[in-house]
Design a protein that fits this description.
41% of the residues are buried. The longest helix is centred in the C-terminal third of the chain and has 14 residues, at 161-174. The protein is built from seven helices and six strands, in the order βαβααββααβαβα. With 188 residues, the protein is α/β, with parallel strands linked by helices. Strands 3-2-1-4-5-6 form a six-stranded parallel β-sheet, with helices on both faces.
């Protein structure tokens, strides 16, 4: 049985740790092949904010692409994938997606997935949100993107930041029918 191919984009918003944790979770799913794009901005965030590096994230992926390679396989709709996750998703990348401004591979791959009817989950990371951010998120939702902001949850007993990250990763993976053992759902 062929593996499901999921593209993971990590863009230059704070929270690159979430993208790293997502890759760790996907690495444990035997029938998933990950295709990773890390933006230039995300590389800066890894250096400034994380205990792990962009290279550590790349080591978790099955295939790694240069964000400037617009001729990469995932830039074409004829290269079939099961969709894409952008975690975190910067407001710049989100704006590029809703305007189909495909000036890098991360935005192009998301655009290709949407035009082919594939699921794209965006994890926008900005606070507070201004009207342009909200307009772009509304437009993305209307265009078929799944908007999944990393909102804090308290119903499941999350006590640490990593518990919160694991909750978000679990919510993201649910969009692809993947169960995450560190996710604690609402039990009523």
């Amino acid at each position: 049985m062929p593996k499901r191919k999921i593209i993971v984009g990590i863009s230059g918003a704070t929270g690159a740790q979430m993208g790293y944790r997502l890759l760790q979770a996907l690495r444990d799913v035997p029938d998933v092949e990950t295709h990773l794009i890390i933006s230039d901005g995300a590389r800066v965030i890894f250096d400034r904010e994380c205990d792990v590096t962009a290279a550590d994230a790349e080591a978790l992926a099955d295939v790694v692409y240069d964000n400037h390679d617009l001729a990469a396989a995932i830039s074409s709709g004829s290269y079939v994938t099961d969709g894409m996750i952008v975690c975190p998703c910067s407001m710049k990348s989100l704006s590029g997606m809703v305007n189909a401004y495909d000036d890098d591979l991360l935005v192009r791959a998301a655009d290709v997935c949407r035009k082919e009817g594939r699921r794209v989950v965006l994890v926008p990371r900005e606070v507070p949100l201004n009207q342009a951010h909200l307009r772009n998120m509304l437009q993305a939702a209307q265009d078929g993107y799944v908007i999944l902001p990393p909102m804090l949850t308290f119903y499941n007993g999350c006590e640490t930041t990593m518990d919160q990250v694991d909750h978000i990763v679990g919510k993201i993976l649910m969009q692809f029918g993947i169960t995450y053992d560190r996710f604690r759902p609402w039990e009523g």
